[in-house]
UniProtKB/TrEMBL annotation:
It is a multi-pass membrane protein. One of its GO terms (cellular component) is plasma membrane. Keywords: Cell membrane, Membrane, Transmembrane, Transmembrane helix, Transport. PROSITE patterns: MFS (PS50850). Belongs to the major facilitator superfamily. EmrB family. Residues 20-460 form the Major facilitator superfamily (MFS) profile domain. The chain crosses the membrane at residues 12-33, 53-74, 86-105, 111-132, 144-166, 172-194, 206-228, 234-254, 275-300, 306-328, 340-359, 365-384, 405-425, 437-459. The keyword Transmembrane applies. One of its GO terms (molecular function) is transmembrane transporter activity. This is EmrB/QacA family drug resistance transporter. The keyword Transmembrane applies.
Length: 465
């Protein structure tokens, strides 16, 4: 049977593969670009709404937190209603959230609508991998996964630059509204091109209690950062109430998960040292990436006086470094092992972050750009090997759950990173001191990441050539 006429089990011919892959990548790119695009607008949004960075930071924190909580639910829902229906539902929610965010009337409404966007993105993100693997089949999986990695890498490169162009030329509302026409095209094409897939009829029940405990628990802990960023004393009710509530809810989830047969996130996976190392590395990678994506535009705008467009372009080397390094690291990890690449990349990222602790308003911009490029490249050599190591540390049946947990905590790390930037920048005396303090904290976080990376699997015996 010729390749052009081959029919896959998913119900479409190989000749339709490029169209299906293109439609999936178009929809998946929406959430990735939007999450990084908004990073250059944080300072502008705080001014527009007359609020603090601690509050407006929830425009990004709320989005990432919604993605985090939605990811583990998506797999269950896709089995119940089918992948195509869930994909269209995710696109619909993302479009609705984008339109509503663009029409927001105050900071609270914008944050609420960004959470709705995040729920849509939390449906789309894990389905990209599932649907691409199904569309490609085993013989083209590597080729299609390479395309996915390239698209994912474009977020930190294009997001800030596009955000700067839109913010300077059209205004802040279009940072959200621009997703609407693109999303409508993606929705129409998905309905026409993607093959229908019937539900599997999985008998697995959704862990409703887990959802009810985990999401609010994370939100409570993160709310502590924004309350402290307002200058509130730490030992005060506005700070302690969300902190205590968050800790109690997360503790309740831990007790529930250890007793449940099928919890939302199976904490028993963390008994495996290699898996725990991978999760820790990916969570701290999320912290490092989003810290830099948020704090560097603030530095260029507040300390250097640049506009949104220039700030977005000046942040681009960070993403370029990650975009170039990540695919290369993915190819090398099978031969060199996860540990060596993650330690090497993490060391470069740590040294680069430490360099930023000396930054001031007179630092040559070329030095800032090269240091940002080095941080991105270093992190690019950490993420793919850590993600790939789960295939070496978990049995096959546990890999889907493990992949979900790692990606979920990577997004949670991004949420923590954004909240941390808002807290530090609001509580320091000037922007330069704030950036330095952020990078002192980030240097410590990356050193902790290196400690976890040392526990990742080394190269398999005989794999070195």
């Amino acid at each position: 049977m010729s390749l052009n006429n081959q029919t896959h089990e998913s119900g479409f011919t190989s000749s339709s593969l490029p169209a299906v892959v293109g439609v999936i990548l178009l929809g998946g790119a929406l959430g990735i670009l939007n999450s990084t695009m908004v990073a250059v607008g944080i300072d502008r949004l705080a001014g527009e709404f007359g609020t603090s960075l601690g509050t407006i930071g929830w425009v990004s924190t709320g989005f990432l937190l919604a993605v985090t909580v939605t990811i583990p639910v998506t797999g269950w829902a896709a089995d119940r209603v089918g992948g195509k229906r869930m994909w269209l539902a995710g696109l619909g929610l993302f479009l609705l959230g984008s339109l509503a965010a663009g029409l927001s009337w105050d900071a609270g409404s914008l944050i609420a609508f960004r959470v709705l966007q995040g729920i849509g993105a939390g449906i789309l993100d894990p389905l990209v991998l599932i649907l691409l693997a199904r569309a490609a089949g085993p013989h083209r999986a590597g080729q299609v996964m390479g395309l996915m990695a390239a698209v994912l890498s474009l977020g930190p490169v294009l997001g800030p630059a596009i955000g700067g162009v839109v913010l300077q030329g059209l205004g802040w509302r279009w940072m959200f509204l621009i997703s609407v026409p693109v999303g409508v095209v993606a929705f129409v094409l998905a309905r026409r091109v993607m093959p229908g897939d019937p539900p599997t009829g999985s008998a697995t029940r959704l862990d409703v209690l887990g959802v009810a405990l985990l999401g609010p628990g994370f939100a409570g802990v993160l709310l502590t950062f924004s309350q402290a960023a307002k200058g509130t004393e730490f030992v005060s009710w506005p700070v302690l109430i969300p902190l205590v509530a968050g800790v109690v809810l997360l503790g309740g989830y831990a007790m529930h998960a250890m007793r449940s047969q099928r919890p939302l996130v199976d904490l028993r996976l963390f008994a495996r040292g290699g898996f725990t190392a991978s999760v820790t590395v990916m969570a701290l990678t999320g912290v490092a990436l989003y810290v830099s994506l948020v704090v560097l535009p603030l530095y260029f705008q507040q300390a250097r006086g640049h506009g949104a467009l220039a700030s977005g372009l000046l942040v681009a080397p960070l993403g370029i470094g990650a975009a170039v390094a990540a695919p290369l690291a993915g190819r090398l990890s099978d031969r060199l092992g996860s540990r060596a690449l993650a330690l090497g990349g993490g060391s470069v990222a740590a040294l680069s972050a430490f360099t930023f602790t000396w930054i001031d308003a007179e630092t040559p911009e070329i030095r800032v750009l090269l240091t940002g490029l080095a941080i991105g490249a270093g992190l690019g050599f950490v993420g793919p090997p850590a993600m790939g190591s789960i295939y070496r540390t978990l049995p096959g049946p546990l890999v889907p759950q493990g992949s979900s947990v790692i990606y979920m905590l990577n997004q949670l790390g991004g949420s923590v990173g954004v909240a941390m930037v808002a807290l530090v920048m609001e509580t320091t005396t000037d922007p330069v001191s704030g950036v330095r303090s952020v990078y002192w904290l980030l240097t410590g976080a990356i050193v902790a990441m290196l400690a976890a990376a040392a526990l990742l699997p080394a190269a398999k015996q005989g794999s070195m050539r």
